[in-house]
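dumping the sequnces here before i forget
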Amino acid sequence: MRLPYPALLAALGLAGALLFLASLLVGPAAIGLSDSLAALIHGQGEAVTLVMREVRLPRAILGAAIGAALGLSGALLQGLLRNPLAEPGLIGTSSSAALGAVLAIQTGVSAAFALALPLAALAGALASVAVLLLLSGPRGSTLTLILAGIGISSLATATTALILNLSPNPFAANEIIFWMMGSLADRSMLHVQLALPFLGLGAVLAIPAARSLDALTLGEDAAASMGVNLRRLRLLTVLSAALMVGAATAVAGAVGFVGLVVPHLLRRACDARPSRLLAASALGGAAVVLAADVAVRLIAPDRDLKLGVLTALVGAPFFLHLILRTRQEGL
Amino acid sequence: MRLVLDHLTVRRGPCPVLHDISLTLAEGEFVGLLGPNGAGKTTLLRAALGLLPAEGHSSVAALPPAARARAAAFLPQGREIAWPMPVETLVALGRPGRRPEDAAAVARAIDRLGLAPLRKRPATELSGGEQARVLLARALAQEAPLLLADEPTAGLDPEQQLAVMTLFAGLAAEGGTVLASLHDLGLAARHCTRLIVLDTGRIVADGAPRTVLTEALLAGTFGIRAHLSEGPEGLIFQPLGRVAR
Amino acid sequence: MSGFVRRSERHKGWQALALAAALMLALPAAAEVPQRVVSINLCTDQLAMLLAAPGQLVSVSNLARDPLASAMAGQAAAYPENHGLAEEVFALRPDLVLAGTYTSPATTALLRRLGVRVETFAPASDMDAVRAEVLAMGTALGRDEAARAMVAQFDADLAALRADPATGPRAALYYANSYSLGDKTLSGQILAAAGFRNVGAEAGLSIGGTLPLEVLILARPDLVISGQRYPGASRSEEVLDHPALAALGTASARAAMADRDWICGTPYVLRAVRALRAARDGLTE
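..and the predicted 3d for all of it:
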């Protein structure tokens, strides 16, 4: 039995909405259901309102938006490179974005000019995708894609570690784990304001690319003969993915595997059409990251367990499974 | 005229790989593009479609991208199918519109290639021959007056090869135009209305099959000896052996 | 911010006392009294500088010169610095090396194998431990007299500063990464000595751990005490600038305290207690 596409989107959206609510209601401070909602909506109870509106709401919004961005950019990059292993974390986009963000913070540019943080992360993400395309060619063969990804992310992670270790701030040196694993703990509305415009712009740029990605299923020549402007498509996809991965990483660190697992799970339900997979992966990504962020708070309420730890625990086995399958298919 | 190429030249680095090609394809023609490996067949097809930069003029390449898709359909050699799309969805890629006539065109293409029973199957799970038919159906769904096909019979069993050639001949008989690069001179001689032979990037012969496939051309361009005779169902081509070029 | 505590005047008394102690030449040149002492730990650096006879202390660690971490950065500048590496320490030909119990065991083991006497000092977790540290350092340096005098002075000063925490205002120690401290820590004891109830302890922390921002907000502390900001930037410290924490400021005062007076169990913890007392008085006025 298979869900029709609109029903699939509705189901994913509903799951996302419920998890958004769960994200608002779960936290180390035990606040009753009605109290939380009353505080959130009507502002009843000063301290509780502060918690709901300034601590939990931004966290839930960022969880949904970043999850959507990661799912969507995974689906986009896979469509462009025609490879199910193309994922922002695996191909080094996230770690390069993190490098950009760390540079902006450590040089003090982001303190003087807040937008410098997402912009620097965007630049890092763009540079990594450009290098990847140079290394692996227009259709990323699995081998070159993964090898180039290992190279790019090792370099970016090492440089990030170097910068943090050289920082005069004693806390900075211990932050490499955050940039590698990601967390939504203690994010504020300031981060929402910073990230959302970039995430939104990235998502909007993905829309005109959708149909062209369908045609690209048959290869570049076939797509071009069907009227696809390949240069425009590449530009749109790369810019869109870089905007989303950059902004997401700038505020939440590198959360891996969402862009791998979500499109993989939803592909069949979308008739393997990249255009349909985009919207579905965005909704699915939001649900997955919200769920993971609820889970980290339930598993270790007082530990700040990193979000990426959970997504990697679930995602890495998927990755290995996909490698096995692509090997069997001789890709 | 369905396709006009005028002094088309493609260079890779300084040396031309396609040299000053001029030709005209009219409606109702099924043209076989022949030549040994590396003669420039694929380059000619891609240049004619505007898929690679070329000097000179191609009437299709000169069109804006959307109009190009209406003027010509292209079946590339690679037979790439990146995702496990159901057959019907994949064929519909050739006709992405949502009007009733788009759906009708997709249905016609599926019927024409006998894909109805495979309609819901993921294309990546089909056999090579079935995949070739699916991809051909995709190109046919475009219902463009001109079809360019790069080695459409490669890798197919004899029955499927014949089916493809018959289909192309049928398209031409209905008033369509087909330009297909082919390696099988026998199939080309039997089914095509016209043959164009390329050698090292130049047209060395162009005309009706019996006038093109001369002993001298077969020896000079392909390095073979062959016997050519008129059979009840058309020209019969019988290779006999290699010759020193 | 009204509740902001100004750093108290540098307290000169202890230096004067140390100097006086150093000038007492009553000690016999016993064989066990070390003549070349090297300290490789921030806290032993400070205790040794307070108690050592002139010329007895040969080198202190580079951390002792860091004005953010060390209460005696100025004095430390007078000593050659070391980086706690066995090789450079051994090259100083010490007859006693002072280290922390958390100093790399590889370093202390290597020094001991090379025949150097190494004394380790545990981090102090309450006021009694401060007394014990001072006395232990006195013994290690052969300066028991000076150490006893210093403890007496410490006790007198502490008694003068002490306030009852039972009825006092509620304060939260809140650092980078939402880290907070409970009662069984030196910082918690400093807080108690100054007459504050500890919100971290109320939230269930006995040593140290994460105090989630939302728990802090709901606890509504009268005072939120944070460490001094370090140069450069870090994501870990961003939580200290969280808008929700700023919004809390209408009800809760904020105070930034110099870490250097809180880190080590030396008599300088009294500076922290004194600063907190001033803050408490400001709150209860």
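The first strand of chain B starts at residue 3 and ends at 12.
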